[in-house]
């Protein structure tokens, strides 16, 4: 059963959502990160995707204090991402309570460093972020077009032992246009043993059900929850079973 992973994105201390991955184009939500995390936990959620948008801009971890607060006051398994580019960044993230760290830019521009993190911290704790626009990987806060094909990028790491991948369809992120099912189907066919976390465009319970049917390991939800299109009570059928299987 697919795992439900709500996302909290932080910019300037506020909870926001980006539109089509543009850090300079965000929707601000009037909610406290801790209150939000507690609401997720109180409704049976076990996992959280915490995005440090300030860190993505600064190219180093920034919102570690928020990570530490959420890790201290909840039992959520937090996957932290944004600005993880140095050894000090990933060390700080884990010291502040992250259970997983997701990295994208380093995996493209400093391959050996990323692989050293996988070796040091374990393949179950370091997740490859392979975020793409029209099948081409983007990095540096989704601002740099690398020209690298998404499938080939994942394949190169899969051959080096990486087993956990988060992939976002950037053009659909924050749009509620629906996920790119063809991409996830292709990845599941190409890499059947890969644990894939889907993100971008999720708009309904039906979308989650379809991703589950494709064998996607987890799904990140953001705007659909914040805008009320997906209710926490509607996720209970996924939450209970997924956590029993975990």
Structural features, described:
Its EC number is 5.3.1.16. GO terms for molecular function: 1-(5-phosphoribosyl)-5-[(5-phosphoribosylamino)methylideneamino]imidazole-4-carboxamide isomerase activity. It is a single chain. The protein is an alpha/beta fold and 246 residues long. It has a single domain, classed as Alpha-Beta Barrel (TIM Barrel). It has helices at residues 33-42, 53-58, 64-73, 87-95, 105-109, 111-121, 150-158, 181-190, 205-214, 223-226, 236-245, and strands at 3-11, 14-19, 22-29, 47-52, 77-81, 100-103, 126-129, 132-133, 136-139, 144-149, 164-168, 195-199, 218-221. Helix 9 (205-214) links the parallel strand 12 (195-199) and strand 13. Helix 1 packs parallel to helix 3 (64-73). The longest helix has 11 residues, at 111-121.
Radius of gyration using CA atoms only:
16 Å
CATH architecture type: Alpha-Beta Barrel
Name the shape in a single word.
Answer: globular
Count of extended strands: 13
- What structural class should be given to the helix and strand makeup? alpha/beta
Enzyme class: isomerase
EC number: 5.3.1.16
Protein name: 1-(5-phosphoribosyl)-5-[(5-phosphoribosylamino)methylideneamino] imidazole-4-carboxamide isomerase
GO molecular function: 1-(5-phosphoribosyl)-5-[(5-phosphoribosylamino)methylideneamino]imidazole-4-carboxamide isomerase activity
Task: List its salient traits.
TIM Barrel, 11 helices, 246 residues, 38% helix, globular, alpha/beta, disordered C terminus, eight-stranded parallel barrel, three-stranded antiparallel sheet
